[in-house]
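Look over this entry.
=====
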Amino acid sequence: MQIRFFLLMMICLIHTKPFIVFAINNTIKGEIVDSKTKQPLQNANISIKGTTFGAASDIDGKFIIKNIPPGNYMLKANFIGYRSFEKKISLMQNQTLSLTILLEPTVFKGEEVIVTAKADAYRAKVRETPIAFTTLELKELKENYTTGDLPGLIQNVPGVWASSAGLGETEIMIRGFSSDKIRFILNGVPMNEAEDQLMHWSNWAGLSNIARSVQINRGAGFSLYGTGAFGGSVHIETMGVESKGGSAIRFSAGGFHRMGVESGPRAGTIAHPEHSYGFIDAGNAINSTYSCRLNSGPLLNNLANISVFLEYKTGDSYIFGTGYNGYTVGVEAQSLFGNHRLDFTFFVSPQGHNQAFTLQDLDLMTELGREYNRKNHQWQENFYQKPFASLKHEWKISERRL
């Protein structure tokens, strides 16, 4: 038995070929960068063709591929927007190969894309924003403007309803919602009253003259504006500055024919505004607007560009006694320096106007102690002088970021 076992072992040793086991520890590492800017490229794909070895670059453009068997290979690198890179490499035993891969940018031809900027980044865009909206540009606004408040310029927009009891006493509704459910924005600044969210047009009498564009969004479309925008929103952009110097003068006038009593001996008359008895001629309501604007154009290598405007508005509305007399004065300026842009807007509308009255029995009001309700009383006249000012700073950090 021992002899047979010995012979068997000898036969196995004669027919067995010797072998040596080596550890696979070859490594390829390096970085991948833009050939022009030398900026690192994150998430570029690096692979060895014909194998399953590969890696992706990190935020610093670094990559590493480990445990590659010795041999000759083709290294490939890809990144969207860059030309593919290929390089022949040879790996010996226990070798670490370090590389810096430069990828060359390439241009993909396609359809022309035109990018335009808007003063308000949240304005609705055609075929992009799922909301019903209408934008009125300067030409249309100027054609419709005579002497009324701004709601009169947009009252023909579908879904918009506006009425007026005199200059400064305008009311506007969008799809049945009053102004406390509509967000009014002027050059990106909300204008609704903080207390009741209402919009009082007495404070902004000059907006009709200085508006460059008005966009009306109908219905709840932007949660950014909160519950105040449930009925919609109205975005108003002012004139701003001009690319060249110049001046403009404008005059407009309008009027209302008061019907009064339709027939009979008192035709054309209305009840006396100061008494509960007697009648007077209704007359006609005449109103007019005078305005001028001066533009400096770019000055001091675009460090200053200034536009100054003045408007005087006076007259009466179709309701007897709702007279108006007021000014709007303001300035808009722009400054460009380096990658910075400053836009400044200021205007104020000092004015006085009478509210619409309701016929009352003055003797009864005196007896009831309600003299403050009398028509043509000094308390019936409203005085406003509420200024608006905004300053915007845009810093263009790079060609891709603002």
Q: What stands out?
A: Helices lie at 2-15, 138-144, 151-154, 207-210, 362-367. The chain has three domains: 24-103, 132-238, 246-395.
